[in-house]
User: What shape does this take?
Amino acid sequence: MSGMVSMALRIAARRALEGATFADMRVHDSAITPINHMVWSGKSEPFIVISSEDEDATITGRDVTGGERMIDLVFEIAIAHAVAAKPEADDSLPEIVIPATDAGLELSLSLIARQMMRALFEQAGNPWANLFREFCINVRKITNRRGVGNKDGARFAARQIILRIEGLNEPPFGHEPAADEPWGRLLAQMRQDDELVDLAPLVSGAIIGKPPVPEWDRGRSDQGLSPETARRIGIAATAPLAQERPPVATEGTFEETTSGE
Assistant: This one.
């Protein structure tokens, strides 16, 4: 299962990581091709693939958008060749080449993993990183798995990092996110992104639905109750009555009376 929160985490993580590691812009969202095939199909330089795997939510009643939501967000890093880069702390130093030896590949992976974590959880000037942290309430567990492979005698190294994330609640049905809400900020960022702008209406439509849930009916909707059940347990709301003005008297006879008569 992959919900809206998983989607938001992947989108924000991808944009936050682009240009922030030795993988540069080679960051992919949910690539279907196996890592070893990607390594030998022209992607010999370091790259990162982000995917969301298992997702669990502890729900009360039928409040399917609420509850505690745990998501496994997976980052796969792979590299097959030497990496040349300048030290981040001092651009004046010459470029350093990390050789494609076993030790060199593992060193490159470790450095990319460190850069990745810093980009997601430390950098403050990137709106996508800030959004990632809004949707990621807590990191409950980190699993780091090593992988290796070879093809035609050449070796590559890979590492899989799994973040067990407590995620934000799914957006409630029928509610248009406000500009100061995480979902509203996500949609605003997507509308400013050349690649994501065309997807923003689809995401917005999935959140709001058709027709939107009126404000007076939100209590019933958020708890996943039918109108009949809501009436039975005494929380049914009714649509606000139309504001009607009393009819204006245009003609008539008024009689004055005295008490006691």
Summary: The first strand starts at residue 27 and ends at 29. Helices lie at 4-17, 35-39, 102-121, 127-135, 182-191, 200-208, 218-222, 227-232. The chain has eight helices and seven strands.
